[in-house]
Amino acid sequence: MPRHEGRLTTFFYTTPSTKVRFAVARDEFDTMAENIYDEIEIEDMTFDPVIGIYHYPCPCGDRFEIALDDLRDEEDIAVCPSCSLMIRVIYEVDELPKPEEQKTAEATPAPAAAQVRA
């Protein structure tokens, strides 16, 4: 390790503004980790291809939600809009539906029986 690296690290963590920012970030991470209700495999979730959202039931009666685009961006925390609980989604990015597959599902017409007749 070069001699100046230790001084730079010490300076970074000992200046008042960076100490505060580091403490706030650490506290936010600790709070988020406390609210992780469970870790769920993506295969156990329900995918809505029309809106591109994965769902999973929440104990409060609502459901955890996470967008497909968020998963593609490697965000793995699904939140419940009604309570403070969150789940961590276990998945592989390369196993997510491809954008073409999602567009195909959206473009599929409704069954003839469900269409309104004029």
TrEMBL record:
Residues 98-118 are annotated as: Disordered. InterPro entries: DPH3/4-like, DPH_MB_dom, DPH_MB_sf. It catalyses: [3Fe-4S](1+)-[protein] + Fe(2+)-[Dph3] = [3Fe-4S](0)-[protein] + Fe(3+)-[Dph3]; 2 [3Fe-4S](0)-[protein] + 2 Fe(2+)-[Dph3] + NADH = 2 [4Fe-4S](1+)-[protein] + 2 [Dph3] + NAD(+) + H(+). Pfam families: Zn_ribbon_CSL (PF05207). Keywords: Iron, Metal-binding. Residues 105-118 have a biased composition (Low complexity). Residues 36-92 form the DPH-type MB domain. It comes from the Eukaryota. Gene3D superfamilies: DPH Zinc finger. Pathway: Protein modification; peptidyl-diphthamide biosynthesis. One of its GO terms (molecular function) is metal ion binding. One of its GO terms (biological process) is protein histidyl modification to diphthamide. Its cofactor is Fe(2+). Belongs to the DPH3 family. This is Diphthamide biosynthesis protein 3. It comes from Hymenoscyphus albidus.
